[in-house]
Amino acid sequence: MSFGFSVTHTDGNARRGILTTPHGTVHTPAFMPVGTRGAVKGITFRDVQDVGAEIILGNTYHLHLRPGDELIARAGGLHAFIGWPRPILTDSGGYQVFSLAAMRKVTEEGVEFRSHLDGALCALSPEGATDVQARLGSDIAMVLDELVGAEDRGSKVEDRSSGFSNLEPRTSNLGARSAMERSVRWARRARRRLLQLREDPAAAAAVHVTNPGQAQFGIIQGGVDPALRTASVQATVEIGFEAYAIGGLSVGEPVDVMYEVVGHTAPQLPAGRPRYLMGTGMPDDLVECVARGIDMFDCVLPTRNARNGQLITRHGVLVIKNAQYAEDRMPPDPDCGCYTCRTFSRAYLRHLFAAGEMTAATLLTVHNLYFYLDLMAKIREAIGFGSFGKPLQEFHQTFSRRPQQP
Amino acid sequence: MSFGFSVTHTDGNARRGILTTPHGTVHTPAFMPVGTRGAVKGITFRDVQDVGAEIILGNTYHLHLRPGDELIARAGGLHAFIGWPRPILTDSGGYQVFSLAAMRKVTEEGVEFRSHLDGALCALSPEGATDVQARLGSDIAMVLDELVGAEDRGSKVEDRSSGFSNLEPRTSNLGARSAMERSVRWARRARRRLLQLREDPAAAAAVHVTNPGQAQFGIIQGGVDPALRTASVQATVEIGFEAYAIGGLSVGEPVDVMYEVVGHTAPQLPAGRPRYLMGTGMPDDLVECVARGIDMFDCVLPTRNARNGQLITRHGVLVIKNAQYAEDRMPPDPDCGCYTCRTFSRAYLRHLFAAGEMTAATLLTVHNLYFYLDLMAKIREAIGFGSFGKPLQEFHQTFSRRPQQP
Q: What are B237-261's pLDDT values in tens digits?
């Protein structure tokens, strides 16, 4: 089985489809639980499967540092090493280098950094990130990209040049342009490297490719400037990847700006290829961005918030440690069909959380992931019936982070 | 369904039987995973059931302090509060008072102590421990007993009065006698209180009894002195309980002494009632003590050792963090049928443990508990076929902590 994608239903800009990978199929729109270090934090793969996940995400940066991609390749690749036989997408490691590693130095060649584990000096280039992921043998590899404004993070410049109506104050697009252009050049090198590994058996053997059917996605950058986003789409699609992701969002910009960038960018991407919005988001973001043509999502939010005691429910976020739940015999979300909601009360979960029992994190993670994956199933069903407006409207009423219209 | 027990097979002193409780039946010899604070550490009840547990143990001391037995009673009792509908045994809280709480003061009335959570002054009497467990509504409650030598722990006196051949140096039996005698007086008070709760609806309502079918086990004390043990059996059986436990062992005495005390005490207990050896132990202890007539066990060892990275296997203890497992693709125990061994390699488990992923604790706990419960199933099967000598012999060869015979 090799990489493939077909759109089976559309409803406005929303699409429902089937993604094929060497390790099985994924129904889209899909949410990918994050399995940073080869495990989805807090739960076993049995539970990951039980909540309905068809694909997980692995973090190249973490796996490269520990236990190491060469060790994983010797074990037969990431699927074999971690015991998850279904589809896996790996990021390029770039995001973690820019957000976790110390003393990073970005040049045209790539990025140098120090491991957050032991301070060891490491380097990641577009070719290197391709090789690491070839050893991991994920079903979908991502190209290395440069984060927008990585060198001058946090600086906000009044700059009225952005074309998006919802951005106020507007951030600089100077860093965005240079990072986008470098990301395109890096994408070209990453693609060239992957094609070499595909076509040259000696190169593949030298690298220890573990999944010859691995697909590679390009990443659209360009910050919040529509012209830069359009330029990035054109240049990246011209290189030619199995599919495309939208990067550089959910990094602090207002939510309406994020929606606007997605709404501007997604329709420009090839209709026959899946579109992956990286690192987003809240449940309403999933609904809103499906409406704008996105097919794939990942986010640490359901798993991380679970470990912090937050249950994401149909009626909003429930902070389980609050005293009000001490004797609350209701399940976290009475409308939910997950193991946690079918079995346990808010009072018991609060007790486990207060007592520091790790099972609290497990049970909250089961619920949050089920909530996300059930939401995606409902979205797919609604698109199939041409009634996607309904979940969209429900989320406007319950969960929306969009500013209320007057 | 009320409390009952029937022995269905015997093989030497080993017995196989069925224990009936208000929340279902338990096949004996049985091992009870420890669920200190209403959760078996590291795994969900779904996994507890999946590894084959039919009954769990809850800790009265911990649940009394947090979330409180009155809160649990208002939730309908411990089964309802924690979402485990099967049998539960609760200890009396005495062991934790003696081992965890600070500034304890033991009098004939009971024990005063300060909570290890917040230093609050608490008291536990034989009647109080009965009431707390009546509110928890476990299927089996234990009487409050005094720990041997609790007031002068750790002191070792050369005292040749012990009748056991394997005890060297011999510990004092003076503390043992007084604690045993007090435990008998306390047991009488605890039984009187339980009978009052059973027979007086007003008393039961005042206490908020949640499980009217609750059974109560007496506890045999007497340290390592056979005469004291015999006296304790006679006095405790005379009071009359649904069944009897052997307490005060696995507290540091040599393993052969423990076996000797069990071998001396168990046959004196009523043959038609289950015999519970408290807080033991290693896998070979289970086999050895079944051979001496024990029907029920509990121990934190499989769950605690799992969290410390120790896998208990047919071939001994495997310390998963050891570097030798970094690239070991074997399952922890190739002969084991548990989820962990069917799915994951030693290398992956080592990686999870090294990375600090909590899933490591979960997967190791699944294995260790499966190992224990599978061992009990094999023991029951062997007793059923009259071939119990086989597991006994196997454990002598692989797992024995008994001193080698010359």
A: 999 999 999 999 998 899 999 999 9
Tell me, what amino acid is at A65?
A: L
Nearest to A75 among B37, B347, B366 (CB): B347
DSSP state of A35: E
Nearest-neighbour CA in chain B from A1: distance (Å)? 23
Of the candidates B366, B362, B340, the residue with the CA atom closest to the CA atom of residue B353: B362
**In this structure, which amino acid lies at residue B84?**
W
Quote the ipTM score: 0.94
Rounded to the nearest 10 degrees, the angle between the axes of helix A389-398 and helix A283-290 is 150
A326–B357 C-beta distance less than 8 A: no
CB B171 within 8 A of CB B126: no
Of B351, B361, B363, the CB nearest to A67: B351
Please indicate whether residue B295 is annotated as part of the active site: no
> pLDDT digit string (tens) for A3-21?
999 999 999 999 999 999 9
Half-sphere exposure (Cβ direction) of B184: Cα atoms closer than 13 Å = 19
Q: Give the model confidence (pLDDT) of B6-47 as tens digits.
A: 999 999 999 999 999 999 999 999 999 999 999 999 999 999
Report the chain B residue with the minimal C-alpha distance to residue A71: B327
| Res B314: pLDDT | 87
Six token digits for residue B202:
């007003």
Sequence-distant (6+) residues with CB within 8 A of B237 are: B218, B244, B269, B270
The encoded tokens of residue A348 equal 């018991």
The answer to whether B298 is a known catalytic residue is yes
Q: Distance between CA atoms of B42 and A47, rounded to whole angstroms?
A: 14
Contact A216, A276 (CB under 8 A): no
- Report DSSP letters for B153-177, one per residue: TT-----TT---TT-SSPPPSHHHH
Match 């696995």 to its residue by tokens.
B250
